[in-house]
């Protein structure tokens, strides 16, 4: 069994979900060409889903799509992966993303509002344009996508939505714009979970800790080790993986989560619960992490896996 890696990407898939779980399903993943979104896209494709990835930059989309297609082709699996350029801040582009997807594939089962981000700044120094850019990207973009997915398709056919929050539970110093926007996303998720339950549309969210490394996420801060800095305050003493976010997203989309709506799952190694100033985390060993490569190595020859 090969355990080799290419550009830091695991070459094996070892999803904890059964193959074919999402056969005949159609999903949109915003920001699906990089980082966490790319992990979600790969797992959905591996599980049989047709995926449309959408973000602003055409080159990022085409490079990411090529990498994902090549990766899946190595397993003899054909990726039903499509690319649509869309800035989630632009209402007309969001409307068109949903209508293009429904026209082309005849349906829309899943929406994953992963695309987003922010910049580091003390709140006193944030200009209005910067504040608006971050709030429109993370909160307004999520609202627009949810609304259009619901009105154009899910209202009459059901569906499942997963939104993206962050570790903003105690406020978010130096990312006040994004903390406020994501708190809004968590609240919107609860509201839509209630309003749309009657249409069989479930709306949930995931809240990764500030600890999920990817080259693109780190590049946004010009600091490759920004995520490692968080370890000291994470009870599990390590950063997280994109697969640890993706598996939570896949669970929330799956029939196993049929009675869950309005919920936000934290994926942060306990970071957001560590608040007691009198208790310093001991200098302990990191806990076991889950990634496709590590699971593949551990499981073989059992489990749902494919040699890629
Ligand atoms: C840290 C660990 C946790 C990690 C969590 C993650 O989410 S990891 C995921 C990480 N991945 C991502 O975050 C990816 C996505 N993020 C992004 O694309 C950007 O961060 C964005 C959300 C601001 C959108 O930007 P855009 O393309 O729409 O617009 P634009 O570039 O034209 O800026 C508009 C205005 O914003 C302001 N401003 C912008 N940057 C800075 C700065 N560094 N400094 C100060 N201010 C800044 C500025 O006012 C600017 O206008 P101006 O005054 O110059 O005329
Ligand atoms: N990494 C972490 O530790 C954490 C990440 N998150 C959130 O998870 C999500 C994924 O981040 P991650 O993978 O880490 O980082 P990346 O920087 O790799 O991903 C951000 C993605 O969002 C897309 N995007 C940004 N703005 C827009 C927009 N206006 N319209 C459409 N797409 C957009 C980008 O594509 P493009 O540039 O082509 O538009 C990119 O693919 C983000 O919302 C992030 O804030 C939350 C908590 C922690």
Fraction of residues in helix: 25-40%
Largest sheet: 7 strands, parallel
Would you identify the CATH architecture? 3-Layer(aba) Sandwich
What is the domain tally? 1
Q: CATH superfamily assignment?
A: NAD(P)-binding Rossmann-like Domain
Distance between the termini: 10 Å
Overall mean pLDDT score?
Answer: 92
Strand content: 5-15%
- Low-pLDDT stretches are 1-11
By CATH reckoning, the class would read: Alpha Beta
The rounded Rg comes to 19 Å
Number of distinct helices: 8
Morphology? globular
- Biggest sheet: strands side by side, in what order? 6-5-4-7-8-9-10
Could you please describe the fold and organization of this structure?
Helix 5 links the parallel strand 8 (159-164) and strand 9. Helix 3 (91-105) runs parallel beside helix 4 (128-157). The model is unreliable at 1-11 (pLDDT under 50). With 308 residues, the protein is α/β, with parallel strands linked by helices. The chain has 8 helices and 11 strands. It has a 7-stranded parallel β-sheet with strand order 6-5-4-7-8-9-10, sandwiched between helices. Strands 1-2 form a two-stranded antiparallel sheet. The chain has a two-stranded antiparallel ribbon with strand order 3-11. The protein is globular. It has a single domain (15-300), classed as NAD(P)-binding Rossmann-like Domain (Rossmann fold, 3-Layer(aba) Sandwich). It has helices at 35-46, 58-73, 91-105, 128-157, 176-195, 215-219, 242-253, 292-299; strands spanning 5-6, 9-10, 12-13, 26-30, 50-55, 81-85, 110-113, 159-164, 201-208, 264-267, 306-307. Bound molecules: (2E)-Hexenoyl-CoA and NADPH dihydro-nicotinamide-adenine-dinucleotide phosphate. The site of NADPH dihydro-nicotinamide-adenine-dinucleotide phosphate has 31 residues, from helix 1, helix 4 and helix 6.
